[in-house]
Design a protein that fits this description.
Length: 163
Amino acid sequence: MTEIDPDASLGFLIGDLSRLMRHNFNRRAQTLGLSLAQARALGFLSREEGIRQVALADKLEIHPMTLARLLDGLQDLGFITRTADPADRRAFRLHLTSQGRSMIGRMWTLAAETRQEAVADISEEAVAQTLETLRRMKNNLLLAETCGQKPAARTTREDVAND
């Protein structure tokens, strides 16, 4: 059986980096009185204001009932409101309050601190290249997932150099 070196595996490295960044951010977010789950929910909501509750549960990869309890807490803190979806009275649309938007601003500050710690000894150019590569990988996987298509394969060094 072939042994896999986690430090040479893209999947392991991305998973480890994600876990470490979440842990670092969670430690910082506790100073705001937020759990990581609450911060994640607010973060996703800030990117998609008016999202349906069920869609947010899908994005967070949690059960709708778990999200409902999480949202109860955020609503009690005054960070969100739920409004009935005009297209489906059983569904709710989620919105940030002004207090929630203020919290998002503080969360982005903490996220920037976490990012700075992660890239402390890495050049801006290397970080920019890494971000571009990760975006392309994400797009490749989204394309494969939604369309069942594979990105065009590279066949020569020239193809690679021209990217």
